[in-house]
Amino acid sequence: MTKVATSGLPVGKRTMAPRTETAERSCIVTRVAQPPEGLVRFVCGPGGVVVPDVRGNLPGRGVWVTCRRDVVAEAVRKRAFSRGLKEEAKAGDDLPELVEALLLKAALSALSMARKAGLVVTGFGQVTEAVGKGGVVAVLHAREAADDGRRKIGQAIRRRLRAAGSGGDEDETPGNAALWQQPPPSGPKVIAGIFASSEMDLAFGGANVIHAALLAGGASTSFLKCAAALARYRGEAPDTDWTASLS
What we know:
Elements: E1 25-26, E2 33-34, E3 39-44, E4 50-53, E5 62-66, H1 69-77, H2 80-85, H3 95-116, E6 120-122, H4 124-133, E7 136-141, H5 147-163, H6 177-181, E8 189-192, H7 197-204, E9 211-215, H8 218-234
Parallel strand pairs: 7-8
Antiparallel strand pairs: 1-2, 3-4, 3-5, 6-9, 7-9
Helix pairs in contact: 1-3, 3-7, 3-8, 4-5
């Protein structure tokens, strides 16, 4: 009879510690270790071609690169993928563009899922009204959004914060651009210029979407993670964490 230890496992059996999603990975270029959220995984696909695994679920041995376009480009130049994957791996010069396209696709897909879950409001008037009611975790402005529209929605955010006793007492004059572009940390995240209007149209199934608001919910949190990864990759917000204050 096999002897059993007090843990319930056969004596002499070696067990592996459970793998957690928060385990850090090291970038093959910078050698800096960080959580997977700050990196992009790559695997070697058919024909020895390097394949980006932006969702982190492709099978096989993988390597990790810091989620920044310039670092991915450096990995291609230095042939770091072959060294990291321990086999000949072909990485084309267009790999940085491919990664960005996949990150954009993932973000728009997550935005579409948030819409289907009933967590998205579009249109200037509807967004302003939703902000006033509360429960908005993020406001999106398309790249084509006019400063006036962004300013007025920013003012609506501050009015809501004042009503809730969370701040927003600063000067709201139109000339104070730095203020309305960067609302207080306690308010909804304001994401401006990450997407073109045509890209938001694609996600929402609508036409000429310029402003949108996301309500609290799991699908919105998933979108914010994807959008933050895209922003970090482009170098637009290297330290972005748009879900830090969300449960």
